[in-house]
Design brief:
heterodimer; A: mainly alpha; about 45% helix; B: FAD/NAD(P)-binding domain; eight-stranded mixed β-sheet; 13 helices; 21 strands; globular
């Protein structure tokens, strides 16, 4: 297990963990992301996220950022659960030693306006640094989208674990579920403008700049 | 360098460019459309993600339903994966990464490259702008009634009709009625009310329109079941209620491209444009420079330089007029990278409808009573077929997805603290924010009993929001766009109002659990970054560059009230085509908008 894969494993485990407590809803609800190698799928997509000239393996950068955010969480005394021995599938980094919820709180520092990266980006007005917030916010999106799409289905499987847990049958050609029409056709109904262009007053909407009133063409 | 000439060159074959090209083609003007992404469903690109294929398409006979069926599998990962999906903002070549944008904030951008643009994954929603957004807000230099003839033309040709009621829509309507909304029946929205969505989706076959009974999840061709030939063209025409709009909306299977039910611009307008015999579409062509003549003093656009995304070669198209239809982000980027004049509003004033999402989970007994089935079944019926209009604040609509996108929008793309750190006591929702762990898996286990609603906020244009270029980050097309958008407190208040109303509708319908996403900025509906009345005159020609027009949603002066923008963008593009013909191509004998 590499540092990168192991850090992403800790992220995946925080969002879609194994849930023995859901066995009452059916055994298919117990497994989580690590059971379908979701961390590898997310690492692969993260590495392909940006096409830069330098071709940095972005997932490694993200893993390091998660560790940096974990340190920030600890230093700012925002971690509620302290450090644990990391699970076997995880890296030995600080992020992987946090509790599941603290891992997500650390991620929140990376993407939120009050985290160190956002503040530094703001202070130096540096979009390159600011992109860290965008990347961090994209991680839960990638994790959940990939998990609940068909992408993690094994070869020969028609439905992924995520689709089965959602009880989604997969694409269909159609469904005979029409119930008629609330309206058969729309009307070209009358409308009246209370104000025309000429007497439309200024509103709070122009906070950003002067409104330049354009003349009607007619 | 290869160079050639035509009458008009259009940058972008998205939702609006083909509307303008169709109208110009009807008027006998030769048009070349440069499209950065692939051309799906076309015989000249048999494997559009694997090989360069042909060069351009001018013949409607190139359009191929067979290719469309091969390429648009309706599997959400394969189609919608933001990194590796076929419907992404990136080059046709599947081996390559998406194109880069500098986004120094938490946000999601869901634009799609390729012929049809973002309408390739749209839900066919075509409401007109809210009347007061044009006639009472201070942004538009023309009146609402000047758009109406163009709306009417599109309503006739797509066509645009009331969405059929399906169980999930019926649940929503019942909630809306109980919450006190009245039904409205008109195209022109001036007051609150609920109604079926005006959709550009062909009406379903009568055999799919039951009486409300005997529907319990029976499907045809589902992957978990034995595939059948049912619901295929030509046995079935029109919508099959398969709910795959977001995955490309390819139904009914087997139909010619132009007879697919969901009327994305590549299905509805591109064939009409090609039929005129005056329109050429060149995919895999990324515009990098607007060419100009003149200056100092007045400048005029004379053509476009572009890069072939496969070969990397650079070519030029010279023309009597240039149209930018590359969308709210790339149109200003191209403008700025071309060194054109900036009056302070280029790229600015971006509106996004400041989306939010609210979901309700229903007990089986409740949906049995309401609609005679034990679940909502979000994966059946049109993805978005019912709405509530709230002029002044925006709109609320049923918005349903396959599971991956449901998780993404409802439970992953939120801002701020995770749900487990939020106190919702006294709030209209049981949970708010992003979900993780057991809570997420429980909600997703409830997928089929969940009704998801979207809130489209009538956010207002502000100069601080929009697109510039990041000079420190360059890709093969020049400095990349820098996108910044944040809500004004007034926009937050409007969104909160809509979220409260959405929760009330779900509660009134009987939802036992309500969740609010508190979404981070999702840049899907984008408008007004090159606004008419600011950068553009009332004919959508640039104030500062002659013969340069804009015909995409960036030309809209505001967010059209929160109504889905495609109808207004296309209507304005038709009008702009006529203004162009009047100014530079010998006039229009019978303008749609009257003389």
């Amino acid at each position: 297990m590499s540092y990168t894969q192991g850090t992403f494993a800790a992220l995946v485990d925080a969002i879609v963990p194994e849930t023995p407590g859901l066995a009452s809803r059916g055994e298919e609800h117990v497994p989580g992301g690590l059971d379908v190698s979701l961390e590898a799928a997310v690492v692969e997509r993260t590495n392909r996220f940006l096409e830069g000239e330098s071709r940095v393996p972005l997932a490694t950068v993200v893993a390091a950022l998660l560790d940096a955010a974990a340190v920030e969480l600890l230093l700012r005394r925002r971690a509620t659960d302290g450090l644990n021995a990391p699970a076997e599938a995880f890296s030995r980094g600080v992020f992987a030693r946090l509790s599941r919820r603290d891992r997500l709180r650390a991620l929140g520092l990376l993407e939120g306006e009050e985290g160190a990266f956002a503040r530094i980006a703001d202070r130096f007005d540096d979009a390159g640094l600011g992109v860290v917030t965008y990347l961090a916010g994209s991680l839960p999106v990638l994790v959940q989208f990939v998990y609940y799409s068909e992408a993690t289905a094994a070869a020969g499987e028609t439905r992924s674990l995520g689709w089965r847990q959602a009880d989604y049958p997969g694409p269909a050609e159609g469904y005979p579920v029409g119930m008629g029409y609330e309206i058969e056709a729309f009307e070209e109904n009358e409308y009246e403008s209370e104000m025309r262009k000429d007497d439309a007053g200024e509103s709070e909407d122009d906070a950003g700049g002067e409104h330049e009133s354009g003349g009607s063409e007619r | 360098m290869r160079e050639r000439e035509t009458d008009v060159v259009v940058v972008g074959a998205g939702g609006d460019g083909p509307a303008l090209a169709w109208r110009l083609g009807q008027l006998g003007v030769d048009v070349t459309i440069l499209e950065a992404g692939p051309f799906y469903g076309n015989e000249r690109w048999a494997a559009p993600n694997d090989a360069p294929g042909g060069e351009s398409s001018t013949d409607p006979g190139d359009l191929s339903g067979e290719r469309y069926d091969e390429q648009f599998t309706a599997r959400e990962g394969e189609m919608n994966d933001p990194v590796a999906g076929k419907l992404r903002w990136g080059p046709a070549d599947a081996e390559r990464s998406p194109w880069q944008r500098a986004i120094p904030q938490q946000a999601v951008i869901t634009q799609v490259a390729g012929v049809g643009g973002t309408t390739q994954h749209y839900y066919g929603n075509h409401p007109r702008a809210f009347v007061p957004a044009i006639d009472e807000q201070p942004h538009w230099p023309i009146d609402y009634d000047q758009l109406v003839p163009y709306y009417q033309r599109l309503e006739a040709v797509h066509p645009i009709e009331p969405a059929p009621t399906t169980p999930k829509a019926a649940v929503f309507f019942e909630g809306a009625r109980r919450a006190g909304y009245e039904r409205t029946d008109g195209y022109n929205v001036t007051s609150e009310g609920y109604r079926p969505f005006p959709n550009a989706i062909l009406q379903p076959d009568e055999r799919l329109m039951g009486d409300g009974g005997e529907r319990d999840g029976e499907s045809a061709g589902g992957e978990g079941e034995s595939a059948t030939d049912e619901y295929r063209y030509p046995d079935y025409e029109g919508d099959t209620l398969a709910a795959h709009e977001h995955q490309g909306g390819p139904h009914p299977r087997g139909a010619p491209v132009r007879e697919r039910a969901r009327r994305s611009s590549n299905v509805s307008l591109v064939p009409r444009a090609l039929d005129t015999g005056h329109v050429e579409i060149r995919p895999n062509a990324f515009a990098t420079q607007v060419l100009t003549a003149g200056g100092p003093g007045p400048v005029a656009a004379t053509g476009v330089e572009f890069r072939d995304t496969w070969a990397g070669t650079v070519e030029r198209v010279h023309a009597d007029a240039v149209v930018l239809a590359a969308g709210c982000i790339e149109t200003p980027r191209l403008w700025l990278n071309s060194g054109l004049p900036d009056d302070g509003w280029v790229g600015k004033g971006l509106t996004t409808h400041w989306f939010d999402f609210v979901a309700g989970v229903f007990d089986s007994a409740t949906t049995e009573t309401l609609v005679g089935q034990p679940a909502v079944e979000p994966h059946q019926g049109q993805a978005a077929g019912a709405r509530v209009d709230v002029p002044g604040a925006g709109g609320i609509a049923v918005n349903t997805f396959a599971p991956g996108l449901t998780a993404t929008t409802m439970y992953a793309a939120g801002q701020g603290e995770w749900s487990f750190d939020r106190d919702t006591a006294g709030e209209p929702w049981d949970t708010c924010g992003r979900l993780a762990g057991r809570e997420l898996k429980e909600r997703m286990a409830d997928y089929r009993r969940t009704l998801t609603l979207i809130c489209h906020t009538d956010d207002r244009p502000r100069q601080a929001n929009g697109v510039s270029v990041d000079e420190s980050t360059t890709d093969e097309h020049g400095p990349v766009p820098l996108v910044e958008w944040e809500p004004h407190p007034d926009d937050d208040a409007r969104r909160d109002d809509l979220a409260v109303r959405a929760a009330e509708i779900l509660r009134e319908a009987g939802a036992t659990h309500v969740h609010r996403a508190d979404a981070a900025p999702i840049l899907l509906h984008m408008q007004s970054s090159m606004a008419m009345g600011k950068v553009l005159d009332a004919g959508c020609e640039a104030h500062d560059v002659d013969r340069l027009f804009v015909a995409d949603h960036s030309a809209l002066p505001n967010g059209v009230g929160g109504a889905n923008p495609t109808h207004s963008g296309q209507a304005l593009a038709l009008r702009t085509a006529e203004r162009m013909a009047e100014r530079y191509f010998g006039g229009v004998d019978e303008p749609l908008g009257g003389a």
